[in-house]
Amino acid sequence: MDVDLVQLESSLWVGKKRYRAALTEWHLNWTELDKKNRDKTVSVPVSEIVAVEEGHVEVLPQRSVSEDTDRDFTVFYVKRSSNGSSYGLLWRLGRTQFSCPSRDLRDQWMTQLRIALKTHSPSRPHRLLVFINPFGGKKQGREIYHSLVAPLFELAGVSSHVVVTERANQARDHILKKDLTGFDGVVCVGGDGMFSELLHGVIGRTQQEAGLSEHDPSLQSCDLHIGIIPAGSTDCVCFATVGVNDPVTSALHIIIGDSQPLDVCSVHHRSSLVRYSVSLVGYGFYGDVLAESERHRWMGPLRYDYSGAMVYLSNRSYAGLVQYLPADPQLSNPRDNTRCLSGCSVCSKSTERLFPHSPDASSNYISHFSQFSSDSEGDWVSVEGRFKAVSLTCMSSSCPRSPLGLSPSAHLADGTGDLIIVRDTHPLGFLTFLHRHTSTQDQFDLPFVDVHRVKAVRFSLPPGEKEDEDEERETVNGGGMAEEGERTSRSGSQHHLVERGEERGMANDRRKKDLCGLCCSKPPSVSVWNCDGEILPHTEILCRVHGQLVRLYARGMEDGSATPTRK
Ligand SMILES: CCCCCCCCCCCCC/C=C/[C@@H](O)[C@H](COP(=O)(O)O)NC(=O)CCCCC
Ligand SMILES: Nc1ncnc2c1ncn2[C@@H]1O[C@H](COP(=O)(O)OP(=O)(O)O)[C@@H](O)[C@H]1O
Ligand SMILES: [Ca+2]
């Protein structure tokens, strides 16, 4: 066990009260020197100190030095508070002003605290590239960044280069093509779509630099960290990796250099990469909701609730063949009623399993899909039938709409995904399934629902519905995502998708025939795939899970007392 050695200890004043303050290697503690309150010690981990300033300093709403005596210093740190509206813990900027008996002692405290910060927080970012989507969510990205985040970055000495995007995929292209020397990480201010741009940029860039093809099963894991300041409609990636969708909490995770590895699913069509996903690759209900919601983007985040209701009422199901490669059932399973929390042991063990003999967990390594068991045809399991929804998620995908998520026991970084198969059922049954996402009731405890922990998934259409063989390939960075000048790559409802397909000469007669099933009389026989909020241009796909391919400035959900489990 590490011994927490005392570096400096003295008697200090906070306001009118006297405290015994001690800086150990890992903590700053202060205890009131009043017999009645002996047990009232405040303890802040050094890794959670945001800044140390001389004098009495305030930063919010504006930076001011109210009283600059030469015997005072101010410590800013992470302070947790519970959140009334969701389960996670909110982080806020704590501030304590200390007064020393002499200037010499103040200087000693300043020096020791700064040394401690340097020594014990080596992974803090110094320079960040920030992309703001001014149109995401409630269109408040710019204001959120400038009023809540920028002052904290300034206080912590994090410099940033800010790009306010003018088109979809500008952030992705910037990361793929521009000089990134000197940046420790990239940050998006927006929703899951903006995160997805950064994800594609960072993974693509890393493969380019490693001389690898993104179409291959093996990918190089990425060093450049991604930060998310939530300002979108679903904010699922932020919520599932931090526990709340709160800009200040996320800014503080970025500042202290938290690092959370994340599994990524690559989606392929006929051996070409189409897109990456972390939260949802969903066919049927979730695909239809996304396609419908794009026509109601003006509603903002409410578009999903409205479209969800409309699609539910249309009561559709789709035929297909789902095949999956099961993960090792000894390690974990999606119904073990556990939760992936900060420091999760299943994920830690899988770091060893996925990257054995790696002396440094943060250095690049090749993430081989299916490295530790055979990927032979015999291992694939097939399920044929009609489905209300087929969903694959690499993590719990908890979000404000569903605080426990699509798969509450899924892990952020275990190298597996959860495949949820909802077979065709009566409308009330499906409503029960959907409704359970909003409570602690088990959505998998229904006779028409199956969930499997998997390493890969394949989906094919029934023989009569096959995709055209001569269909033009749309692959990542080459048409699958929106082109330069497009307002947003999600501009297509199923109608729009047909138009975009025609523009590109895509011979997809099947989809042209189906059009939109909500307003046209013939219900569609084929749905679309929702890939983290992007409609995929293909129906027959193969998905592979890549363990810990990227790293986020986050630490997973903290074990707050309010963390719920399932009934
Ligand atoms: C009767 C109540 C029904 C409630 C169903 C709740 C199920 C919610 C599960 C949500 C999973 C979300 C997975 C994440 C998806 C996002 O990537 C995607 C794009 O987000 P954004 O960029 O912020 O726009 N969001 C969606 O596809 C929305 C799905 C909403 C389905 C109701
Ligand atoms: N300046 C822009 N104009 C139009 N679309 C943009 C712009 N910047 C980013 N986008 C695209 O907007 C989409 C939605 O953004 P996102 O921030 O995820 O908001 P929301 O959560 O509301 O969907 C993303 O897919 C992104 O590619
Ligand atoms: Ca996982």
Automatic annotation (TrEMBL):
Cited SMART domains = DAGKc (SM00046)
Biased composition annotated in UniProt, kind: Basic and acidic residues: 496-506
Residue stretches making up the DAGKc domain:
123-271
User: What is one Pfam family matched by this protein?
Assistant: PH_CERK
Q: What are its GO biological-process terms?
A: ceramide metabolic process
Identify the InterPro entries for this entry. ATP-NAD_kinase_N, CERK_C, CERK_PH, Diacylglycerol_kinase_cat_dom, Lipid_Phosphate_FormReg, NAD/diacylglycerol_kinase_sf
Q: Which residues form a coiled coil?
A: none
State the GO CC annotations.
membrane
Region: Disordered, residue numbers: 461-506
Superkingdom of this protein's organism: Eukaryota
Q: Which GO terms describe its molecular function?
A: ceramide kinase activity
Q: Where is the signal peptide?
A: none
Q: Any idea what this protein is called?
A: Zgc:158263
- Source taxonomy: Eukaryota, Metazoa, Chordata, Craniata, Vertebrata
